[in-house]
């Protein structure tokens, strides 16, 4: 009986995750209201609790979502930048934690909601509870399917740790960065103002891994796919005064409408920038990057 319930629930969760992922592709992030009004096939599923950081639907066997705030000093945190740890909820080891334990027992995936602003979240789906670390009062969470097979979630082998770090970056940090950048730019390309999030990337001004290459909004630009690629290939540059430049060789070429309208006509345009000054692209970083563009021209 429980097995059948579990399988039905696993299928329903799969449907919910698919719709949620699609929503995020369209906007980069979701609001509390969207999570509250979430509907699949005409049926509403509350993906977030009204007041608490964990959603345990009465009609489900296990926890459906957990909420995490990267800025919070509270105990939910990434351990060694690899596996994700989620602290027991306040109080006893029972209560809310019971349904998280059920997620482990029944092998049911759930949603991790990362807060990027008040009432705005980037969901990571599916994630899995893979260990109940009772002595430290926390659950270990695998951020993707492949991490479920680690030998011992509480003691990762060096290679597993490296792998887990890569997954954390891909599944947690990059989507968060994209969510923050797209939100700051109101889901439009900073160069051409295209407003389709599915065609937008969060580009780094200074590359990830370089000094100053931080995953912060002031080191980011919301760019459509073509302008992102053009920026990375030095076909397109951005001055520290927020002006778009096109490589001089490219300006002289004659070709079809994409070259003409998509690139050449962008030369001299003013960059669209976020309204909040702290979100605007850093002029120092732009200058550093613009020098590379000039050297390549
Ligand atoms: Zn564009």
Brief summary:
The protein has helices spanning 2-27, 32-36, 96-105, 158-184, 225-232, 248-252, 257-263, 283-296, and strands spanning 30-31, 39-40, 43-44, 54-55, 65-68, 77-78, 84-87, 110-117, 120-133, 138-142, 200-204, 220-224, 236-238, 244-246. The protein is an alpha+beta fold and 297 residues long.
Strand tally is 14
What is the CATH domain class of the largest domain? Answer: Mainly Beta
Helix content: 25-40%
Query: What percentage of the residues does DSSP assign to strands (E)?
Result: 15-25%
The biggest beta sheet, please? Answer: 8 strands, mixed
Question: Main attributes?
Answer:
two-stranded antiparallel sheet, PUA domain-like, eight-stranded mixed beta sheet, 2 domains, binds zinc ion, 297 residues
If you had to describe this structure to a student in words, what would you say it looks like?
The chain is an alpha+beta fold. The protein contains 8 helices and 14 strands. The chain has helices at 2-27, 32-36, 96-105, 158-184, 225-232, 248-252, 257-263, 283-296, and strands spanning 30-31, 39-40, 43-44, 54-55, 65-68, 77-78, 84-87, 110-117, 120-133, 138-142, 200-204, 220-224, 236-238, 244-246. Strands 1, 4, 5, 6, 7, 8, 9 and 10 form an 8-stranded mixed sheet that branches. Bound molecules: zinc ion.
